[in-house]
């Protein structure tokens, strides 16, 4: 299995495809397989790099370092270890927050930015959701964690229209947390802390690369108001809202994958 040391963290990664490098950054508690529905398309034009964030999967689980700026340094460390001076960068949820810091801290290394179901700061509703998740993670069962995370991430409109899919998602999450390879609570708590501490509003105007922002209209975690804020404060960015789609655009909204691929194809030149 491929590993590198990135910013001091032993990091598991995978690569697929040929072309300019495209770094894909997963959301909290998700490993390198998060982009399984996008990589087959993206890899036709890009060298796709997926990896396990610190605290999840086969990467190290340090006790500290769970902030979005520090996790951006992890990502740059990975690119450097792989010999990539620059890359297109796409991030989902927490991964999008990490990607924002990459574009701010080392703009010459980020050729384009794709922000999926993400946020620039934490409003009270989002803060309370993750405060609840911290307590649920520490004090209750995998089943309750699976039920709450699914219920609170898919929203009324999507659940009413796709109840059986949501039930299956709950079962998958419960099985994952009940198995022998269950994610580390230390790492997941660290991811929650990174979300709760993310604040980059004052730096968004520093982002100058081509930027694609996407969100589901039925996303109760990072609702369209967050995406609209990003659109208004990142010069030249474009926004796509998917009617009825939930927070997990990656695996439940096929049109999203097509649009994300189209944007990346458009900006592919110049790396």
How is the topology of this model organized?
Layout: E1 3-6, E2 9-16, E3 21-25, H1 39-42, E4 47-51, H2 68-81, E5 87-92, H3 94-105, E6 110-116, H4 124-139, H5 142-161, H6 163-178, H7 185-196, E7 211-216, H8 224-233, E8 238-242, H9 249-252, H10 254-267
Parallel strand pairs: 3-4, 3-5, 5-6, 6-7, 7-8
Antiparallel strand pairs: 1-2, 2-4
Helix pairs in contact: 2-3, 4-5, 4-7, 5-6
How would you describe this protein?
It contains ten helices and eight strands. Strand 1 (3-6) and strand 2 form a beta hairpin. It is α/β, with parallel strands linked by helices.
What proportion strand? Answer: 15-25%
Largest sheet: 8 strands, mixed
Helix-strand string: EEEHEHEHEHHHHEHEHH
Distance from first to last alpha carbon = 28 Å
What is the mean pLDDT?
95
Largest sheet, spatial ordering of strands: 1-2-4-3-5-6-7-8
What structural class do helix, strand and pairing data support?
Answer: alpha/beta
Low-confidence stretches: none
